[in-house]
């Protein structure tokens, strides 16, 4: 048995003084490390940690810089796109026989202003303007509209062209005459009562005729088989009737336009429902409106007149009170001494209607001037 190794006791003079000694066993190969070596090792570890922290900070800064650059680039591209899309434009247009107006549009760099609108409806339509080239140029304005139908006009328009009709033209939807003169050739104006075949236009129920001039060769002008709308329609010389309304009900509207040279009637109401006339000019006419006095089938009819101007007319509104007719006039200039409201006793199936006393409950007129207008 080998001899037992003695314990080695090492004494350190420490703060604890004598008796504060620690003992350790010698393992035969390892020495005891000094405190200085431990401190150096700790310092190296700290330095490495600091270096890693600095590198991470640098990398983080680089990443942030890259992100900021990307964001700025995206924002710039967005702004450029917005500039390209922000073009705007305006357009204006006016039409003969109508009020003038202007329209504008923006957005997308694509749409310009629309066509001008009439002062009281019926303005012509116009196309969109060209698109914006870039963010600094506005989109182009829309083209001016065609002839509109709003507002009372007292000057007969000059035709933009002439179209001769060998037969009546039937309209089922909307027809814009573009201010052309439409006449029947050969003439159907015989000087007596005619029918639909003698007309320039036949309008089916719900149809609209706009921006047209009717020539004197059309014996019956316009025939409305149902409710219809006439916008900015002019009759250069009325033969028998300018327009005849045959609807069984509903409302037919005349807006704008004018008629002259009607020895008999401008508007003949043979059907039922309502006829309203707005912003209309008449010159040298027999009667502006007549509710049929002796039609085969008689009904109560309504009529309304707003902002009309009659220069030389014998009778403005002629109705049949005994059949239940009602008429209102609101805003009119009547020159030449014509009768504003005339009441008759209508008959059915032929014969001549009789006279009847005036009755404000049958035909009422307000804001009517007979001079200075």
From TrEMBL:
<keyword id="KW-0732">Signal</keyword>
<keyword id="KW-0106">Calcium</keyword>
<comment type="function">
    <text>Pectinolytic enzyme consist of four classes of enzymes: pectin lyase, polygalacturonase, pectin methylesterase and rhamnogalacturonase. Among pectinolytic enzymes, pectin lyase is the most important in depolymerization of pectin, since it cleaves internal glycosidic bonds of highly methylated pectins. Favors pectate, the anion, over pectin, the methyl ester.</text>
</comment>
<feature type="region of interest" description="Disordered">
    <location>
        <begin position="1"/>
        <end position="163"/>
    </location>
</feature>
<feature type="compositionally biased region" description="Gly residues">
    <location>
        <begin position="88"/>
        <end position="127"/>
    </location>
</feature>
<dbReference type="GO" id="GO:0005576">
    <property type="term" value="C:extracellular region"/>
</dbReference>
<dbReference type="GO" id="GO:0045490">
    <property type="term" value="P:pectin catabolic process"/>
</dbReference>
<dbReference type="InterPro" id="IPR004898">
    <property type="entry name" value="Pectate_lyase_PlyH/PlyE-like"/>
</dbReference>
<dbReference type="Pfam" id="PF03211">
    <property type="entry name" value="Pectate_lyase"/>
</dbReference>
<protein>
    <recommendedName>
        <fullName>Pectate lyase</fullName>
        <ecNumber>4.2.2.2</ecNumber>
    </recommendedName>
</protein>
<keyword id="KW-0456">Lyase</keyword>
<dbReference type="GO" id="GO:0030570">
    <property type="term" value="F:pectate lyase activity"/>
</dbReference>
<keyword id="KW-0964">Secreted</keyword>
<feature type="compositionally biased region" description="Gly residues">
    <location>
        <begin position="137"/>
        <end position="152"/>
    </location>
</feature>
<feature type="compositionally biased region" description="Basic and acidic residues">
    <location>
        <begin position="35"/>
        <end position="86"/>
    </location>
</feature>
<dbReference type="InterPro" id="IPR011050">
    <property type="entry name" value="Pectin_lyase_fold/virulence"/>
</dbReference>
<comment type="similarity">
    <text>Belongs to the polysaccharide lyase 3 family.</text>
</comment>
<dbReference type="InterPro" id="IPR012334">
    <property type="entry name" value="Pectin_lyas_fold"/>
</dbReference>
């Amino acid at each position: 048995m080998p001899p037992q190794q003695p314990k080695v006791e090492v004494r350190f003079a420490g703060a604890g003084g004598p008796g504060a000694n620690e003992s350790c066993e010698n393992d035969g190969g390892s020495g005891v490390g000094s405190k200085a070596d431990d401190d150096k090792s700790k310092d190296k570890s700290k330095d490495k940690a600091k270096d890693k922290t600095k590198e991470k900070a640098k990398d983080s800064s680089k990443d942030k810089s890259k992100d900021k650059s990307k964001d700025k680039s995206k924002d710039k591209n967005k702004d450029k796109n917005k500039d390209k899309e922000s073009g705007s434009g305006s357009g204006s247009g006016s039409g003969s026989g109508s009020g003038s107006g202007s329209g504008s549009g923006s957005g997308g760099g694509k749409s310009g202003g629309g066509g001008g609108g009439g002062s009281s409806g019926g303005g012509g339509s116009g196309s969109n303007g060209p698109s914006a080239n870039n963010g600094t140029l506005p989109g182009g304005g829309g083209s001016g509209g065609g002839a509109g139908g709003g507002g009372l006009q007292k000057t007969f328009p000059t035709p933009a062209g002439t179209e001769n009709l060998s037969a009546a033209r039937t309209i089922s939807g909307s027809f814009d005459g573009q201010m052309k003169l439409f006449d029947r050739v050969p003439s159907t104006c015989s000087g007596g009562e005619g029918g639909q075949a003698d007309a320039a236009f036949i309008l089916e129920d719900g149809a609209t005729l706009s921006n047209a001039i009717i020539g004197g060769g059309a014996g019956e002008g316009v025939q409305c088989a149902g409710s219809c709308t006439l916008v900015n329609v002019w009759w250069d010389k009325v033969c028998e009737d300018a327009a005849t309304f045959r609807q069984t009900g509903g409302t037919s509207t005349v807006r704008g336009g004018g008629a002259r040279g009607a020895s008999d009637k401008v508007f003949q109401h043979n059907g039922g429902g309502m006829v309203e006339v707005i912003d209309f000019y008449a010159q040298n006419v027999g009667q502006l409106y007549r509710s049929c006095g002796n039609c085969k089938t008689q009904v109560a009819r309504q009529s309304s007149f707003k902002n009309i101007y009659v220069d030389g007319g014998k009778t403005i509104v002629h109705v049949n009170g005994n059949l239940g007719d009602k008429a209102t006039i609101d805003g009119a200039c009547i020159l030449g001494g014509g009768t504003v409201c005339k009441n008759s006793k209508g008959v059915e199936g032929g014969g001549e209607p009789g006279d009847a006393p005036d009755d404000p409950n049958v035909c009422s007129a307000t804001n009517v001037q007979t001079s200075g207008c």
